[in-house]
Every structure is written in structure tokens, then in C-alpha cells.
Task: inverse folding
């Protein structure tokens, strides 16, 4: 597929959506996002249920009006929170056959497949993700099998709820394929969800092994299981070289916290010198480098972060000034750094479109 048509706009593929978990991409506003070439945002169903609450978002006219973002929004289901919150601390809640119970800050939140879909519909999301049971690639077979069984069962309930929607929203419902590193489980999950009517899919589960390496074999195999006329969404994959590798596998949609988080930690992405000189670039090799804002060598450097980049930061501010802002802890440093990193990612996507 070359593009993704959604209620709030058409997105050329491949595309990268930055993380806006709680309804905001940290440190920037929607005008900054548009100027950086961002085409969509990923938000999180569970976190929005807790603050400000699904009823509040609906009363405000949906997420797009609430956030002043007239472009596509994907809402993740909350399944990853099973992985990130409950696995590490069982006192945070529990996974039941038909629902997830979260307990946080003295409050109880129930997330069932039905409520997951109903909440996302009330948000006015462009892409709705089915509720799944997330695992780590190194988890034992028994946990992976339980994850697949649960994801399939919840997937049916999500599809039924989506098909019964009253407003006949033109949003798209994506399934998520679980199974860890076991190809048999991955195929079982994919086949069952396809039979239910799912057409587009996310890669479910942690995509890195215990040593932080991309699980390329199972990613490529899972991409082959996904229909070619649907979206192949590599959820949570954000290192530039990993995105390039996954595009070659057939994936065409990505999201991650990496560019915005790294910006807040004063690390920026810059294409290598050959590319900045407008020479040919080979994305199969190391095609970028890091710019560390606080390095002393930038103290009196009047150059932009990158001579190639057309972002607001590079067009208006020097390396020396950005270092100054970061050194005094001014919040403008985070905004300008975030703008640059997001533009790097949108430029990378444009290179592969």
C-alpha cells in the first residue's frame, strides 16, 4: 500500500506517528507538529480513560477537537500497559479472562474488549486498535500460548463491538498479532483474526530481544502473515535503522517515543555528512549520527544543527544558542530539540515513500 485513507486525512506510506500517549506530544503543540511534517499521532486508550476520561473527551467533541489536531489519530488499546505495568508489579492490577483490571493512584480502571472499542469510538479515533495481551519475545511458550488464546478471544469481542457501532464511524479497526518468537503461534493468531474480518495488523509483543537487538526473523515472518492490501504496523519500533529494516520487510507504519524522549535528553538525530552534501545515501549503512547538544564544542558554533534540515529550529537557531538554552535548563531547548528530531523522522519517511 502507498497510502492510508482515514477520516481525518490521507497518509502517505511509510509513515511515522510520534507518541502522544496522554493527548499531547510532549514539549510541542500541534502547529509545531504540522510544521515538522508529522501526519498523525498515536494516543493511548487506557491513559485517556484515566485522565481526562472518555466522557470528557466525548463532551469536548472528540480527540481532534480537544487537542486541536485536524489530522489522523491512532489510539492504542491499552494492551501494552498489561506488559509495562502489570508484569512488573502485580499490585497494579490483574488480567482476567474477559478484562484487565488496573489499580493506580487509589483508583480502579476496568478495560474490557467491549469498553476498549467503545472508548475509542467515543474519542473519534481514525485507527482503533483491538485489545491484546502483550508479551516479551523471551517469555516461555506457555505465556505466549495464553497470550494468543486471549488475544484471539478478545479480538472477536472487539470486532463484534466495532461492527455494532451506532454512528457507523469510518474509522479502521486493526488487529494485533501475538505469539512471541514462535512461528506456529504467530500463524495461529493471524489466521484466526483474518477469519474474523481483520485486514490491517500491528506486530504484537516486544520487538527486541533481551540484548536489545531487533527480532528480525519473527518480524519478517509476521509481516508475511499480514495481508498485502492492509496496513502492516510495526508498533513501538523507532530506531532509524530498525525502521529502515522493517520497511524492507513490508511494514509501512511506525510509532515510538524515541525521537521525542531523546530530544528531551539533549540527543538529536542528524543525517550523515555525505547526505548533507546532497550526495547519494545508502540507507542500508549507517546513515545518521547523533548531535549532543551540551557538548562543549558547540558553545560558540553559529551553524544550525543540520544544513540539510528545514525545520524551525535549524532555520532559526544556532548550535551555540541551543546549547545555551539546554545549559540553563530553559524549556525552549526541549521544544526546539523535539521539533528537529520529529523533522528528521518525517524526512526519513519521505526518503522511503
Result:
Amino acid at each position: 500500500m502507498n497510502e492510508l485513507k482515514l477520516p481525518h486525512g490521507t497518509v502517505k506510506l511509510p509513515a511515522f506517528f510520534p507518541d502522544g500517549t496522554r493527548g499531547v506530544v510532549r514539549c510541542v503543540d500541534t502547529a509545531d507538529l504540522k510544521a515538522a511534517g508529522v501526519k498523525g499521532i498515536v494516543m493511548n486508550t487506557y491513559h485517556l480513560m484515566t485522565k481526562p476520561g472518555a466522557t470528557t473527551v466525548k463532551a469536548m467533541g472528540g480527540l481532534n477537537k480537544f487537542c486541536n489536531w485536524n489530522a489522523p489519530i491512532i489510539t492504542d488499546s491499552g494492551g501494552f500497559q498489561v506488559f509495562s505495568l502489570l508484569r512488573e508489579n502485580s499490585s497494579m492490577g490483574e488480567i482476567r479472562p474477559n478484562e484487565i483490571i488496573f489499580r493506580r493512584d487509589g483508583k480502579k480502571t476496568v478495560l474490557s474488549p467491549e469498553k476498549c472499542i467503545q472508548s475509542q469510538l467515543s474519542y473519534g479515533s481514525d485507527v482503533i486498535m483491538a485489545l491484546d495481551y502483550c508479551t516479551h519475545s523471551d517469555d516461555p511458550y506457555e505465556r505466549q500460548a495464553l497470550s494468543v488464546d486471549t488475544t484471539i478471544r478478545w479480538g472477536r469481542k472487539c470486532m463484534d463491538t466495532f461492527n455494532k457501532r451506532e454512528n457507523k464511524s469510518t474509522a479502521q479497526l486493526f488487529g494485533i498479532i501475538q505469539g512471541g518468537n514462535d512461528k506456529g503461534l504467530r500463524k495461529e493468531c493471524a489466521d484466526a483474526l483474518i477469519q474474523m474480518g481483520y485486514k490491517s495488523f500491528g506486530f504484537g509483543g516486544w520487538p527486541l530481544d533481551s540484548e536489545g537487538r531487533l527480532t528480525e526473523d519473527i518480524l519478517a515472518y509476521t509481516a508475511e502473515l499480514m495481508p498485502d492490501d492492509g496496513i502492516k504496523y510495526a508498533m513501538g519500533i523507532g530506531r532509524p535503522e530498525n525502521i529502515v529494516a522493517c520497511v524492507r520487510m513490508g511494514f509501512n507504519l511506525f510509532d515510538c517515543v524515541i525521537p521525542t524522549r531523546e530530544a528531551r535528553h539533549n540527543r538529536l538525530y542528524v543525517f550523515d555528512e555525505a547526505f548533507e552534501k546532497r550526495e547519494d545515501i545508502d540507507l542500508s549503512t549507517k546513515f545518521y549520527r547523533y548531535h549532543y547538544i551540551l557538548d562543549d564544542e558547540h558553545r560558540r558554533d553559529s551553524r544550525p544543527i543540520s544544513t540539510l534540515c528545514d525545520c524551525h529550529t535549524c532555520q532559526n537557531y544556532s548550535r551555540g544558542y541551543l546549547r545555551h538554552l539546554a545549559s540553563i535548563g530553559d524549556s525552549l531547548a526541549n521544544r526546539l530539540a523535539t521539533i528537529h528530531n520529529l523533522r528528521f523522522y518525517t524526512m526519513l519517511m519521505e526518503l522511503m515513500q
In short: The chain has a mean pLDDT of 93. Residues 141-163 form the longest helix (23 residues). The radius of gyration is 20 Å. The CA atoms of residues 90 and 103 lie 10 Å apart.
